Amino acid sequence: MKGVMIQGTASDVGKSFIVTALCRILANEGVKVAPFKSQNMSNNSYVTRDGKEIGRAQGIQAEAARIEPTVWMNPLLLKPRSDTHSEVVYLGKAIETLSGRGYRDNFYEKGIAVIKKSLHKLQEEFDVVVIEGAGSPVEINLKDRELVNMRVAELADVPVVLVADIDRGGVFASIVGTLDLLEPKERQRVAGVIINKFRGDITLFEDGVLWLEEKTGVPVLGVLPFVEDHMIDGEDSLSIISQFSRSNKGTLDIAVIQLPFISNYSDLEPFLYEEDVSIRWVNHASEFGQPDAIILPGTKSTISALENLRDKQLDILIQNHVANGGYVVGICGGYQILGEEIIDEAGSDNGIPKAMVKGLGYIPAITTFYKEKETNRVTGKYHIGTGLPINQQVHGYEIHLGKTVFSRKGCSFLTLANGEAEGYFANDGQIIGTYLHHLFHNDEWRNEWLNMIRKRKGLPNQAACYISEYKDKRFDLVAAQLKSHLKWDLLKNIINKRSSK
After folding, report:
1. Which residues are catalytic?
2. Which pTM does this prediction carry?
3. Under 8 Å CB-to-CB from 75, ≥6 apart: which residues?
C-alpha cells in the first residue's frame, strides 16, 4: 500500500489535525487520497450517507480529501458508556456493549480481519491512504493485542511518522522515550518526526532539531506552529478543554451542562466563531452562574447523565433558569432528559430492562429505549407551528437509541423531508428539544436562535455568521500553512515509497 501512518507520543498531540491537513494537501495536488483509522474510541461520531456511524475525525478528514466518508475509513468505533464498558460499532453498526477486558479477549481476531478487509478496500479505490494511530504506540500493557498503532502499520506495510506536542512540555523525552520503547522492527518503520504546536520563534528550536536528529537518527520533517481557530473538529475529550478554553467573552452567556460520557460535543463548536457569544462548560452547581441559555448535549448514557445532573442539584438551577425566562435546548440525550419520563425497555441504556426514571418535565414526552439504534442523515424545515421561516432548510444527523413520543399535544420543531415531525418547540423557542446533531452548524438557524436571545436581552439582531462556507477555505489555509513548515518533498517521498511486499 502507498501511504503513511501518523502516530503520536500521546493522545491529543495533533494526529487527527495533521492527517486532515495531509489529506487536503494531497487532494490539492491531484492525489486520490483517503483517511483511515482502524479503531476509534470516541463519542464524537459522524453519520455517513448510507446511515452508518464512524468516528467524526475520519468524516472530517474525508471532507478535507474531497471524498465521501465510508465505514472502510473507520471500521471499529468504541463509544464509552461507562468507565468500564463501551458500545462496539462494527462497520458502522452497533453490535454489542463490552468491557475493556471482554473486548480485548474476544474481539482481537475479528478486529484484525475487518482491518485487513478495510485496508484492501481503500487500496483498491485510492492512490494513497493516510492512516491515523491512537494514543501512544508504546502502551506496553496493551501492545500484544493492539489494533490501532504498529500492528496496523505492519498490516498496511507503510512508514510511520511520529508526532509530538511541544506545547505540553517534555518533547525531547517523549520522542526519545517512545522510540526507545519500540521493538527493533517497529523502530525501523519510523521514517520521520513532526513537532507540533510550537509557539514563538521557530528558529530558536533549530538546535533542538539537530540534537533530535543526531540522537535518534530520524529526520525531523517539520516544526509546526500552534494553529489557532483551525475549525477542524476535535476527536476526544481532551479536545474539549483545548478548544473551548478560547471561547469569546461575549455578551451572550451560553452554559453547556457537561454530562458524563458526552457525545458529539462538536455540535457546539460553531459558537466559538460568534463574536458576541461566550460558551462555557458547567460541571458543578458552583459554575452555573446566570446564563442566557442552557444547552444539554448528547450523552452515551442518558439515565446515568440524568442521575448525575440531579446528584449535583443542577436540575434545581435549570428549573430556576426556565422559570426566569431563560432559554434551553436539549440535543439527543439532552432532549430525552428534558422530557417527562424515560423507559429503558430493552436495558440498552443502563443495562436494566424496564427501568423507569422521571425526566425534568419541560417537554410533554416519554422516551422509550429499544435495542436498535437510529443513525440517519436528515433534512427538514421548521414546523409551521413554530412561526419560523418554513422554507428554510435544516440539515443534521440522528444517532440515538430512544424513541420520543408526545404524551399530550405539543408543537414539533421540524418537519423532516419524509414528512415526519421531529423535536419540540415551545414558548417562542424558549424550550427546544431535538435529535438532530449538527443543528447549530446550520448558520441561519444558529443566527435565528441567537437573535431570540439577543432580543430578550434588549440587544439588536446580528447578521448570520456563515462559518460553513469558511470552513472549507480553512482546510486550504491550514494545509498551506502546514505545508510551508514541513519538509514536504521529503515527506512526499516517504509517502510515495512503495511497500517491499
Report:
1. 332, 437
2. 0.86
3. 38, 39, 90, 91, 114, 115, 117, 118
